[in-house]
Every structure is written in C-alpha cells, then in structure tokens.
Inverse folding.
C-alpha cells in the first residue's frame, strides 16, 4: 500500500532563487525561469514523472502523448503555485485576482465557533489562507514534522502575514493540544486530508473509480471536536487568477468513513475540473490487482 514519505518537493536554494527574482523583477520573469526548471524536472525526475504519467494515463484515460505533455504541465503549474505562495506570503506586489465561492461559509465559522478546513494537495490552498485576513481570525496550518525543516524555516522568515500559525504534527501528540487550544479560541484549523504516512491509520474510499487510502487523523479531529468543518479548495485559473471554494460548515455526527466519503466526493469534483493541479507526486491509488475491501493498518502503523 503506497504512502507519502512525508517530504515536500523542492529545496531552500530553489525557494531563495525564485524569491530573489520575484523581488527584483516580478512574477512574469519568475514564471519564465520556471519553464526551464520544470523542463529539467520533466526530463530527469523519474520519481515524479512516473506517478504523474500514470495519473493522467490510467486515472483520466488520456492518450499516451497527451499524458506526456500533461506531466510537463503538471510540473509547471505546480511550480507556479509555489511561486505564487511565496509572493503572497512575503508581501511582494502581485497582480492576482480572486473569486470566492462560499466565502460566507467561512465568515460564519470565524464569527462563531471556529472550525476545521479540510483541503487537499490540489490547486493552492495555502495561497487562499493568505487572502482571508478579512475574516478577522487566526489560521492554523497543520503540517507534518517530516517535511523539510529548512524550507519551513525559510518560509517563516519571508512570511509577512503573522496571522497564520503552523502546527506541526509530532509523535508526542502535542499537535492535538495545539489544535484544541486554537479551536477553544475560535480559530480556524487548516489541514489536508489526502496524504497519510507510514505510522498513521488509513481509511479506504474509491476516488475517480479507483481505490485509494486517506489518513484517518484529519477526519478523527473533525469528528472529535464537534466544531463545523468545511471542504476548502483554491484552484489556479489563468496566470494570475485564483478560484476559492468553501462548502457550508457542518458538524459531523456520523462515523468517520461517512466523512471520508463526503470528502472524496468533493475532491473528485475538483480533480475532474482541474486535472493538471493534482500535486501528489507518488502512487496515490492502489494498483488494481492489489485492491482490498477492508480497512488496512499496515505493519508498524499506529493511530494518529
């Protein structure tokens, strides 16, 4: 059963180079430089190319050469979202425009109980979090400790929006107390629900007609704390435009599997609408010959 290895793509040097270009010349030259960087990864990053190609070829059913071209587009758009995120987080002047579907749902949560925003590695949710200052509440981004510490430290140095806090998922479970404290303060918790790492419980669901596994932790949190949750996504439409989606806030009273199924339905709609913005560069889906029906906890796993 494939699982994410807990590390985001990219290096501090790459972030610094693009931040330098952004500061000196703006977004357009940074995007131009990115075309060469994306082509380099397209040619030489086999670990990213293979799962991306299988995603377009097997999940979407694209023809062979369309799948090849889509892999390059996938890498390029992924790089754009990183540049966009750094630009907004660092306060660089940008020409971005935005359209919000369901912003009132987040206002309602922020103005009453706080809540949990469940997102995924599709589009660019982090950039949306930077734009919601007018909600007048604090955002807490939940991240894995396994991610590159130096990248997180560098982003922290350039980040101008101090209304965003990072909660790190740790083995000592201290993140649960940090989440509870934030919710007690009626803040918003932003967490991805599409990646699990070895050591965490996984729940099955059929996404795009194929079986995949989702981390139980985010859905257990949404169920345990009895605060409203919303499925939130932000997709890039054109060079400088983003579209934010937020479903109405609900308090979950059923079993966790029902919540996972609701989440995967919302996620599937976005995958179909924005296929090139799926940024899980590993074998996310279970191979067809290995599919099983029962909930699986792999050897050595423990519940988050």
């Amino acid at each position: 059963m494939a699982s994410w290895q807990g590390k985001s793509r990219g290096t501090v040097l790459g972030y610094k180079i693009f931040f330098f270009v952004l500061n000196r010349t703006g977004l357009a030259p940074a995007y131009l430089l990115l075309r060469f960087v994306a082509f380099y990864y397209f040619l030489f990053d086999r670990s990213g190319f293979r799962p991306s190609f299988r995603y377009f070829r097997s999940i979407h059913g694209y023809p062979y050469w369309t799948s090849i071209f889509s892999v390059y587009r996938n890498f390029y758009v992924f790089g754009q979202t990183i540049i966009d995120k750094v630009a907004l987080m660092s306060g660089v002047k940008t020409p971005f425009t935005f359209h919000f579907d369901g912003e009132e749902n987040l206002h309602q949560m922020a103005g009453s109980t706080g809540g949990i925003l469940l997102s995924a590695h599709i589009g660019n949710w982090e950039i949306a979090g930077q734009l919601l200052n007018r909600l007048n509440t604090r955002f807490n981004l939940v991240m894995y400790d396994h991610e590159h510490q130096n990248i997180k430290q560098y982003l922290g140095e350039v980040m101008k929006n101090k209304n965003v806090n990072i909660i790190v998922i740790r083995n000592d479970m201290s993140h649960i107390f940090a989440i509870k404290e934030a919710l007690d303060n009626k803040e918003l918790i932003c967490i991805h629900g599409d990646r699990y790492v070895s050591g965490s419980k996984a729940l099955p669901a059929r996404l795009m007609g194929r079986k995949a596994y989702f981390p139980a932790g985010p859905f257990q949190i949404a169920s345990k704390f009895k605060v409203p949750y919303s499925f939130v996504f932000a997709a890039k439409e054109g060079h400088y435009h983003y579209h934010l989606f937020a479903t109405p806030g609900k308090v979950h009273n059923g079993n966790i599997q029902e919540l996972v199924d609701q989440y995967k339905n919302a996620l599937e709609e976005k995958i179909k609408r924005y296929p090139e913005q799926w940024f899980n560069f590993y074998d996310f889906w279970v191979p067809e010959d290995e599919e099983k029906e029962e909930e699986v906890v792999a050897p050595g796993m423990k519940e988050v």
In short: Residues 12-289 form one domain. The chain has one domain: 12-289.
